[in-house]
Fold this protein.
Amino acid sequence: MTSMCLGLEHQSIRGKTIKLLDADQEVRVLSHSQGAKGKGKGKGSKGLSGKQGKGGKGKGGKGKGGQSSKAPKSGKGKGGKSGKGGKSGKGGQSSKAPKSEKCKGKNSSKGQPFLRGVDCDDENDGDSDDFDSEDNDADCTTPTGRTAAIRKIAADISGLIGKDSPQDLALRWTIDDQEGTDGCNVEEVIERYALASFYYSSNGEGWTKSDQWLTAGEACDGWYGILGCDKGRVTKIGLENNSLSGIIADELGSISTMVELNLFMNKLSGSLPATLGKLPLELLDIEDNSFSGNPFTESFFKLADTLSSFRASFNEFSGTIPARISDFSLLKEFWIADNKFNGTIPDSISSLDKMTHLIMRKNSFTGGIPGSIERLLNLSQLLLDQNKLTGAIPEGMAELKNLQVLTINNNTLAGNFPAGFEELTNLERIWAFDNNLNGSIPDLTKMTKLTELLLHDNEFTGTLPDLSENKKIRQLELSDNFFVGSIDGALFELENLEKLYLNGNLLTGEIPETFEQNEILEDIFLDNNLLSGTIPEFQGNPFPNIQEITLHRNKFAGEVPANLCTLRAEDTTRFTSLVADCLLFDETESIQNFCAEDCCTACFVGKVLQP
């Protein structure tokens, strides 16, 4: 019977593992298809076992791992099968498979070990295990030929397959999956074997949901987490928050049509497979796992022509960001928060002009914020907090007109906000606390979208900013600076204000009469200032949502209002803290602000009575 060796229309991949590689973001996209073809030459290493033939058992002779790069004709590529009667090979008996009469090209990696592979070597290479064409009665449409074809594909992808490894379990399943896996369809075999390897290497039995995985049905037809397909081939995998553990199998990199891989919030560890660099990935989301190593390797940079979203926050990655990060010209999202990166932020990162989300918080970056950051005109979120950054805020930051979120807190930045900062009218969140910033706060009245302004623990001076036009503001933290002057009553008229922290300044005057008008305030911190007058006697039922009020270390006179004590008595589980200058002063036995029993949760000696 005339035979033809099975052709493989894919790139030969040797499975190796190398070390690779917020905040509150919700941008999680898209499809690109690329098939890889390749022709390769070279001898494979010794086969591990032979197929059982009629009349004898084979223990494996020496075989070359070459294989055709031509696709099978009419969907029926033929593969070698064990012949009748085992013939002796080196190292033991072997059932010789028939030698192909029409092997055209080979596609094995030189020196790559195959497991029970099908031989498509040159006809006159003199090896003792060359297949005999006279014995060939198998092709990929027969059970034995199908098995041999699948084994050869698996070996070409994975190399040496250890017993009971995830790859071995995947190979067995693929072979047993006679109803779902067509041995003559190379792409289908590759995909199903790769998915099965991924399933076993990530503890598929422990997944929260694994509906239809490793069933006879097509992966694109109901397997949980297969979110996109193109012409029957998988393009998108999304298994976020699904209790995956273990590692990502190298074999996943052989699904050449995959453009989106989302494994957010699982328990995966190790390094990223180098084989992922062979894919046309547009989205790689591995955020909130336990991956380690330096992600910015040569194989990672192979994604530069396609990758637009890289989300790797909340892992254990380390190393520095190379200047050639600029190669990723399509990158829009770069999330590497809460890792162990160090070094400086390269100036070249500013050449990524499509960037919308630059999230690098909670690392150990040093040096300054790149002065060329003004080139990132599409940037909407810039999160650089909790690093070791120094220097001034770049003047160019005032050019980022699309900026919505800016977090630069917990660094050692100095100076003030740059000129023109007040024109960033799309800003919704400004976190700049715990730095050495100084000077007066710029005019913020144009920032009508602002919801959070956190500038505490700096060295700002001057009066409190005018926020009368910032109607959406929910959280205002200006504590522990050097602000002077009085408290504007308009602050308590901001209908969305929930948290107000003005403690630790040099504020004077009385508490405004509008103090009780805000019904959604939860926290009011006014302690450690120079405020005077009486604590206002509230009317009706003030502060229905209040949780904490701190008034101590001031110059208030009179008692803590009774209805404020009543409010706390009615709900001590919600209204947990009321602090005033109600401590008895030792010698004079005087109390600056008397507080009824069980009303105040803590008492201090007021500034009037302090020696």
